[in-house]
Amino acid sequence: TNPGSVSDQPIVSMDFFPTMLEHTGLPLKPNLHADGRSLLPELTGKKGKPRPLYWPYPHYHGSNWKPGASIRDGDWKLIKFYDQEKVELYNLKKDPSEKKDLAKKNPARAKELEYKLIAWQKQMKAKLPEPNPDYKN
Fold first, then answer.
1. What CA–CA distances, in Å, run from 5 to 2, 37, 59, 114?
2. Within its chain, how far is the Cα of 8 from the centroid?
3. Is 46 helix (H, G, I), strand (E, B) or coil?
4. Given pLDDT bands bounded at 50, 70 and 90, which one contains residue 134?
5. pLDDT at 133 over 90
6. Mean pLDDT comparison of 62-66, 105-109, 122-126, 128-132, highest-scoring range
7. Rounded mean pLDDT of the chain?
8. How distant, in Å, are the alpha carbons of 1, 60, 67, 126, 130 from that of 123?
9. Is the pLDDT assigned to residue 135 strictly greater than 80?
10. DSSP E strands: which ranges in 4-116?
11. DSSP three-state, residue 123
12. Residue 108: pLDDT band by 50, 70, 90 thresholds?
């Protein structure tokens, strides 16, 4: 890597494992890093292959976050909220703080990203939230 070099290519932590494997000359293990890729192109001054990034979050916890998932594809980010059965859509280039939900103004883009998210969840066999049978309203 050249000192002071910068890449604006979005990456996720799942990319670290295949990067370390490739960098050390060890064989990749796609079953263990199916949604990550090596970052060696970026680290050697080349452009990596752009791809959508996904974040599943199928459970509740101590914060206010509810079960959902999101996808970032280029400048666009879609967040799917399972408990509300709704999506939000943001253009991160124009709105990096995610203040202006564009899902109603751009339903075609929202559907496209939602379908990509669903397809990825099926491919990864991602966990989805399930109703608690012991919960009474």
1. 6, 20, 38, 34
2. 16
3. coil
4. low
5. no
6. 105-109
7. 88
8. 34, 23, 19, 8, 19
9. no
10. 53-57, 68-73, 76-81, 86-91
11. helix
12. very high
Residue 109 CA from chain centroid, whole number: 16
Long-range pairs of 33-36 with CB within 8 A, sequence gap ≥ 24: 34/124, 35/120, 35/124, 36/12
Give all strands of the β-sheet with 86-91 in edge-to-edge order: 53-57, 68-73, 76-81, 86-91
**Residue 19 token pair:** 């990067």
Decide if 15 contacts 37 (C-beta within 8 A).
yes
Q: Which amino acid is at 133?
A: P
Contacts by residues 46-52 (CB-CB < 8 Å, ≥ 24 positions apart): 47/9, 48/7, 48/9, 50/9, 50/74, 52/116, 52/120
By the 8 A CB rule, do 80 and 87 touch? yes
pLDDT of residue 90: 98
φ, ψ dihedrals at 114, nearest 5°: -65, -40
